[in-house]
Amino acid sequence: MSGLFVTLKIITMSKGVLVDLTKCIGCGSCVVACKMYNNNEWIEDRAPATGEEAKLADANWTVVQKCRISKETGDTIHKDAPVQTNGSEVWRFVKRQCLHCEKPACASSCFATAFKKTDAGPVVYYPNLCVGCRYCMLACPFSIPKFEWNKPIPVITKCTMCHNRIAGGDAPACVTICPTNVMKFGEHEELLKEAKAILASDSRYVQHIYGEEEAGGTAWIYISDKPFESLGFKTNVPKRSMPSYTSNYMHATPIVGTVWFVILACLYFITRRRSAKKEKQTSKSKT
User: Fold this and answer.
1) Apex CA 69: angle with CA 63 and CA 74, to 5°?
2) Exposed e or buried b for every residue in 185-220, given b needs 16+ CB within 10 A?
3) Domain identity same for 114 and 48
4) 31 with 73, same domain?
5) 121 and 262 inside one domain
C-alpha cells in the first residue's frame, strides 16, 4: 500500500519549465511547434510572433521577443534606435507564454470555472464553460489571456502548457523542439534547485529567479544574465498570490449573480405586466 502511495505521489508532483535566456538564439522553433501542435494560425499582419514587436495574441500562445540591451547601463535600447556595431549593445531573446501560476488569478476570478489548475502544473482553459466575462484578462498580473476579437463566436485563448502531452509523460512541444536547450522540463522543485545552483556558480547571472516568488510562484521560471526589467518582464508583480487578495469575497460571486438574476427577472415580469395592462386599457378606450 505504501508503494502505491509513493507512485501516486510521483505521478501527481507538479511540473515546471526552467528557461535559461542566455541560451536563446531567437530561432523561433518554439513558436512554430506551438502553432503546429495547437493548430493556431499566423497573424503577422497584426501580431508578430517573433522579433522586436512580438506580442502574445489570440493565436500567439508563444512568442520570442528580441531585446536590445546596452552593455554599459543594462537598459533597453529602443527598437527604433540605430543599431550599434561597436559592441556597445547585445541582443537577448525572450520566450514568452503563460507562466502557469501556482495559484492562478484567472481561475480564482472565473465564476464559470473555465480555468482550472491541474495537479501536474498546467492551468487549463475550457471554452465550453466560458461565459465571455473576461474577468480573467483583468485579473492576470502578467496580462496573458487574450480574446478572439476578430471571430464571430470569440473565446479566451492562452498557452495550456500542452497539458495533454504532459499527461502522457511528454514535455510541452516548445520544449521538445528547442535546438539549444533553452528550456528544461521537469519537477518544479528540482528545477528551482538547479536554477539556484546555476546562479550560485556563475557570476554572469542576475541573482534572481523570475517566477520563484512573483504572484506566489509560477510553473515557468527564468534565469538571465541581463536585468529582467530590461527584458520586458513585469517586475512590480506582488510576491503574494492574487487569489489571496480576493479569496474572502469570490465565494459570494455565484450568490450575487443569482440574486441579480432574480431581481432582473422580477423587474422584467412587472414591466411586462404593466405594459399588458396599459395596452388592454388603451384598447378598451378605443372601443
Assistant:
1) 125
2) beebeebbebbeebbeeeeebbebbbbeebbbbbbb
3) yes
4) yes
5) no
- CATH number of 230's domain: 3.30.70.20
- The string of pLDDT tens digits covering residues 1-41 is 445 444 444 445 899 999 999 999 999 999 999 999 999 99
Amino acid at 100: H
Which three-class secondary structure state does DSSP give residue 41? coil
3-class SS at 20? strand
Residues 6+ positions from 286 with CB-CB distance below 8 Å: none
With a CB cutoff of 8 Å and minimum separation 6, the contacts of 37 are 162, 165, 173
- Do residue 274 and residue 193 come from a single domain? no
Best CA proximity match to 98, nearest among 170, 178, 163: 163
DSSP SS3 for 287 = coil
Q: Which helix (H) or strand (E) holds 146?
A: strand 146-147
Give the number of other CB atoms < 10 A from CB of residue 181. 9
- Distance between CA 65 and CA 92 in Å, rounded? 8
Residue 287 is assigned to a structural domain of this protein: no
61 and 196 housed in the same domain: yes
If one counts the domains in the chain, the total is 2
CB 101 within 8 A of CB 244: no
pTM value is 0.81
